[in-house]
């Protein structure tokens, strides 16, 4: 299934993409693509419904029908840093011995095609295409062997980052990762049963039509399975939590010399089987 949320900002409704690429309304079945709807029982209920029997939503998704973030009421937006061997190499960083964990504030979350704002005074706003993992079955102290049973599905995340705030201003990375609009998520969550191997997905990102990132989840240091189990040692994971699992090489920081986003530019990004995002860059 491809589950999504559509409509105006703040008033999104739950939906599902049918086999013709049209949106069908799920608001008579669930109140949101969130929480218990993403638990195994909730997904099983949705899987039993024929999308063709649901109301058809007028408009073409990502054209004249806005999509919001594909998961609603996200409780935790957890990120993994330097999780691709080739990205660590381009930044000059050592391969981490354990996953590097940081957070994006949930106020950063926007739809897949919403504008991305460059914060006031920022000179180093950057891009990162990432595989997002959505938790379905909640858990704590999860064994690696059981970790994938806790995954509801996958989505595209753009981990937009302000490198000065992240690296040069002291403290943790979080202040450079959680600015408003720094978390485009979607266009839809593809349920785990449709992704045969999350460790073999092509991913890419363009700025104004120029390809900067062209990688694959094959080069992840810590796999989805490992990351889910690892995080559950330090926090409980709940249905609808999102984990952004790191980025391949080609970020602006890694260019020689570094290249950063400017108002007026456009980012396009995608992951094999998970859809495409497109964001215009604007000044805050």
Main features:
284 residues, mainly beta, 9-stranded mixed beta sheet, 5-stranded mixed beta sheet, 4 helices, 18 strands, 10% helix, 29% strand
Range of strand content: 25-35%
Oligomer: single chain
Radius of gyration: 18 Å
Secondary-structure element order, as H and E? EEEHEHEEEEEEEHEEEEHEEE
> Overall mean pLDDT score?
97
Distance between the termini: 36 Å
* Secondary-structure class: mainly beta
Number of helical elements:
4
Q: What is the molecular shape?
A: globular
Kindly report the spatial arrangement of strands forming the biggest sheet: 3-2-1-13-10-9-16-4-5
The biggest beta sheet is recorded as: 9 strands, mixed
In terms of per-residue confidence, which ranges show pLDDT below 50 for 5 or more consecutive residues? none
* Helix fraction bin: 10-25%
Number of β-strand runs: 18
Please describe the topology of this protein:
Elements: E1 2-6, E2 13-17, E3 23-25, H1 40-47, E4 77-81, H2 85-91, E5 100-103, E6 109-110, E7 116-118, E8 125-126, E9 129-135, E10 151-158, E11 161-162, H3 163-168, E12 183-184, E13 189-191, E14 202-207, E15 210-216, H4 224-231, E16 242-244, E17 266-271, E18 275-283
Parallel strand pairs: 4-16, 6-12, 7-18
Antiparallel strand pairs: 1-2, 1-13, 2-3, 4-5, 8-11, 9-10, 9-16, 10-13, 14-15, 14-17, 17-18
Could you provide a short overview of the structure?
By secondary structure, the chain is mostly beta strands.
